[in-house]
């Protein structure tokens, strides 16, 4: 399957590149129209659609900041000496940071009108500083406005995270403040005048 881009407003980028992961415009433009825009000309989100991959450099700062932000003060997430004493080669990312990055991956793709309904993940190989995690996703099913996306995050050791995310992706007429005039009709798209 071909990766589906969310209109012109979403670009895949590397974490930490300001302005590269999500580009937004005025209300009613760009990312919010993801439910109606597809690269292949079809409408909405479909089972089998692949999300563009997202590469996230795993830095010591990301690991420590994620642990502190989520109030996870276990020493294996911020103190390399104590982590080694406990058998780990270095500090490693906590599950709450991984959970947040998976959520970010989904909302970056589907845009600001998307709402996470559930995030279910399982950790595998640890994320250590100096590695890169690549998140990929495939839409497994769509029921109404809710898409179920299978997500995998891999690093140099294997699968760091696997799981499923359910996300509500409202169509262009279902989001607050949207008006029919925002989406051109068949005659407008063909350039005909009224």
Describe the SSE topology.
Blueprint: E1 50-57, H1 60-69, H2 80-85, H3 95-110, E2 115-123, E3 132-143, E4 146-155, E5 158-168, H4 186-189
Antiparallel strand pairs: 1-3, 2-5, 3-4, 4-5
What would your notes on this structure say?
The structure is a single chain. By secondary structure, the chain is α+β, with helices and mostly antiparallel strands. It has a domain at 30-58 and 93-182: Roll (Thiol Ester Dehydrase, Chain A), CATH 3.10.129. 19% of the residues lie in helices and 26% in strands. It has four helices and five strands. The chain has helices spanning 60-69, 80-85, 95-110, 186-189, and strands spanning 50-57, 115-123, 132-143, 146-155, 158-168. A five-stranded antiparallel β-sheet has the order 1-3-4-5-2, with helices on one face. The protein is elongated. Residues 1-43 and 173-190 have low confidence and may be disordered.
């Amino acid at each position: 399957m071909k990766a589906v881009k969310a209109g012109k407003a979403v670009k895949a980028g590397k974490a930490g590149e300001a302005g590269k992961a999500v580009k937004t415009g005025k209300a009613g433009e760009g990312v919010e129209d993801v439910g109606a825009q597809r690269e292949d000309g079809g409408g909405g989100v479909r089972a089998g659609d692949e999300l563009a991959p997202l590469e996230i450099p795993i830095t010591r700062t990301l690991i420590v900041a994620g642990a502190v932000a989520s109030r996870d003060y276990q020493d294996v997430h911020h103190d390399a000496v104590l982590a080694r004493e406990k058998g780990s080669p270095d500090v490693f990312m906590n599950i709450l940071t991984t959970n947040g990055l998976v959520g970010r991956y989904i909302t970056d793709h589907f845009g600001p009108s998307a709402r996470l309904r559930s995030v279910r993940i399982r950790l595998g190989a640890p994320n250590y500083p100096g590695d890169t995690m690549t998140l990929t996703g495939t839409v497994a099913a769509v029921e109404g406005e809710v898409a179920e996306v299978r997500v995998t995050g891999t690093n140099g050791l294997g699968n760091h995270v696997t799981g499923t995310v359910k996300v509500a992706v409202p169509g262009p007429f279902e989001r607050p403040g949207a008006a029919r005039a925002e989406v051109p009709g068949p005659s407008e798209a063909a350039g005909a005048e009224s």
